[in-house]
């Protein structure tokens, strides 16, 4: 699967169904039939949609953690218990967002579907805009810290 690109304003219907934006569906065409895992975000009040192959790769990485370390066990349990649900795109190109995840992310009607490299974030539109506004103040410093490594060729953007 290629890396995902784009941010889209969408709506969720009264039954909690989200119509996948056409551009995202096109980018995910090769993995649509494999299904997805939808879960709560670790750091934000949004949802993360993992294409199944990305979820499997993450689970394989987590499976390598030493389970005889309590912190590792606690992390695995809490991460996988984050409301993780297997979901599929229906014949009309919609995803059904489970009620518990809708409540967690404060999703009502207007949402934002945003690519995050290899996964998709699903946000309540107001919370997304607030998160972007809040982050804008510190973004230059963050960009320099994360991506501005002079000594490491792998991280510089030019």
UniProtKB/TrEMBL annotation:
Keyword Transmembrane helix in annotation: no
Record's GO cellular component terms: cytoplasm; nucleoid
GO terms (BP aspect): cell division; negative regulation of DNA-templated transcription initiation
SUPFAM superfamilies: AbrB/MazE/MraZ-like
Record-linked InterPro entries: MraZ (IPR003444), MraZ_C (IPR035644), MraZ_dom (IPR020603), MraZ_N (IPR035642), MraZ_sf (IPR038619), SpoVT-AbrB_dom (IPR007159), SpoVT-AbrB_sf (IPR037914)
Transmembrane region(s): none
SpoVT-AbrB domain: residues covered: 7-54, 84-127
Major site of localization recorded for this protein: cytoplasm
Keyword list, A-Z: Cell cycle, Cell division, Cytoplasm, DNA-binding, Repeat, Transcription, Transcription regulation
CDD domains documented for this protein: MraZ_C, MraZ_N
Record has Glycoprotein as a keyword: no
Cell compartments where the protein resides: Cytoplasm, Nucleoid
Single GO MF annotation: transcription cis-regulatory region binding
HAMAP family in UniProt: MraZ
Subunit structure: Forms oligomers.
Family according to the record: Belongs to the MraZ family.
Name of the featured protein: Transcriptional regulator MraZ
Gene: mraZ
